[in-house]
Inverse folding.
């Protein structure tokens, strides 16, 4: 697929983190023009600046979502990599954590995706949208409700958007569901040994790498891709 993304304008929302930075590096190397958003990590934003224009934005803010789309003129593609691990340390925290998780993991990404789809329709661009869910939306993991439920809802909502955007508009909407990755939110848990049993027991051959996600994002952004409304689980077989 050489040169097919050269000059294409792509917004990586939450693209300054570990998974997003790998996507940015790959897409930048292929000549795509990138806008990369971050919420608060200044160190990550400085590193991402090597690959495109960096913008501070919180996707739970309607004004910030609007600002991102206004900045990314001539948009072809959107990749939404934002997320919150939504960890619940005690039962009494569930309600507050779940509410925040729903804002960060579902509402913000979904509304940005829907607004981007509307822009693509207006400009008659047959673009591509990729949302990031989690393997925890694909299988049952104890104590994952606050994180997994909004991410599962995001997957379902993305498929609805894909159905709304098919046909003459030809806007493709797909979802990637990463597993235990050596980047992003799982990185600290891997370092602490929390997931070593998956490798030791042979459930997976290794932990996932950021490049595994980046290659999948690149595949789904391919202009001639014939895939929409699908969820691709990148977990080494863990959810099996």
């Amino acid at each position: 697929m050489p040169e097919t993304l050269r000059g294409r304008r792509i917004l990586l929302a939450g693209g300054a983190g570990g998974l997003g930075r790998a996507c940015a590096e790959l897409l930048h190397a292929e000549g795509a023009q990138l806008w990369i958003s971050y919420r608060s990590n200044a160190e990550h934003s400085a590193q991402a600046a090597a690959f495109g224009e960096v913008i501070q934005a919180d996707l739970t803010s309607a004004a910030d979502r609007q600002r991102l789309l206004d900045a990314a003129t001539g948009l072809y593609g959107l990749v939404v990599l934002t997320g919150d691990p939504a960890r619940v340390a005690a039962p009494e925290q569930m309600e507050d954590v779940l509410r925040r998780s729903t804002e960060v993991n579902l509402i913000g990404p979904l509304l940005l995706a829907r607004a981007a789809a509307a822009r693509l329709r207006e400009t008659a661009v047959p673009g591509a949208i990729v949302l990031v869910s989690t393997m925890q939306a694909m299988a049952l993991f104890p104590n994952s409700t606050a994180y997994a439920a909004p991410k599962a809802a995001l997957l379902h909502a993305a498929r609805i958007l894909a159905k709304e955007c098919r046909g003459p508009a030809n806007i493709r909407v797909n979802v990637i569901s990463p597993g235990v990755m050596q980047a992003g939110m799982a990185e600290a848990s891997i370092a602490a040994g929390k997931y070593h049993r998956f490798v030791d027991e042979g459930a997976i051959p290794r932990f996932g790498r950021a490049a595994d996600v980046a290659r999948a994002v690149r595949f789904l952004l391919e202009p001639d891709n014939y895939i929409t409304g699908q969820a691709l689980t990148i977990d080494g077989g863990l959810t099996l």
Q: What stands out?
A: Strands lie at 9-13, 33-38, 53-56, 77-80, 128-132, 172-178, 231-234.
